[in-house]
TrEMBL record:
Cytochrome oxidase subunit II copper A binding domain sequence ranges: 1-33
Record has Iron as a keyword: yes
Keywords on record: Heme, Iron, Metal-binding
Coiled coil location: none
SUPFAM superfamilies registered for this protein in UniProt: Cupredoxins, Cytochrome c
Keyword Disulfide bond in annotation: no
Native source organism of the sequence: uncultured Fidelibacterota bacterium HF0010_18O13
InterPro entries for the chain: CcO_II-like_C, Cupredoxin, Cyt_c-like_dom, Cyt_c-like_dom_sf
MF GO annotations: copper ion binding; cytochrome-c oxidase activity; heme binding
One Pfam family this sequence matches: Cytochrome_CBB3
Assigned GO CC terms: membrane
Domain Cytochrome c, residue spans: 42-140
The protein's name: Cytochrome c1
């Protein structure tokens, strides 16, 4: 097991991982099978899985409470409404805003929060981005993972 040693917010006890060492041929076989399980999941279910797998849960809650970043529940409830940023500008919360926030998080920092989110550029596929957006849209006060 390995643990996060980079200070990027709270929740480090939830940032664990495993390292498996294998021969190159074994790795190629393993890599060729990646994603097959997730390919069949509906987007919102994949998004729920990614919420934990990609460590979104270390900074964004599902219950409306604030952590390092805005709650996913609050963002879901504000869908179609204006979100105000630390520079006084604003935009409507929609698919494009969420995609941009994940890929270029430092360009629009939500008022009241620090700009500490790392970019996920190159780390998420288009399907994974669509899945996180679909998951976010399904949230309500009773949502649990």
């Amino acid at each position: 097991d390995i643990f996060c040693t980079e200070y990027c917010g709270t929740g480090h006890s939830q940032m664990g991982a495993k390292v498996i060492v294998m021969q190159p041929a074994q790795y190629e076989e393993w890599a060729s099978e990646l994603g097959s399980e997730d390919d069949d999941l509906p987007l919102d279910e994949l998004g729920a899985k990614l919420y934990t797998k990609k460590a979104c849960n270390t900074c964004h809650t599902l219950d409306g409470s604030a952590l390092v970043g805005p709650s996913y529940l609050q963002t879901s409830q504000m869908w179609g409404q204006e979100r105000v940023f630390d520079d006084g500008s604003s935009t409507v919360i929609d698919d494009n805003y969420i995609r941009s926030s994940i890929l270029e998080p430092m360009t629009q920092i939500v008022a009241g929060y620090q700009g500490v989110m790392p970019t996920y550029q190159g780390l998420l596929s288009d399907r994974e981005l669509d899945a996180l957006i679909a998951f976010l849209k399904t949230l309500n006060e009773d949502s649990q993972i």
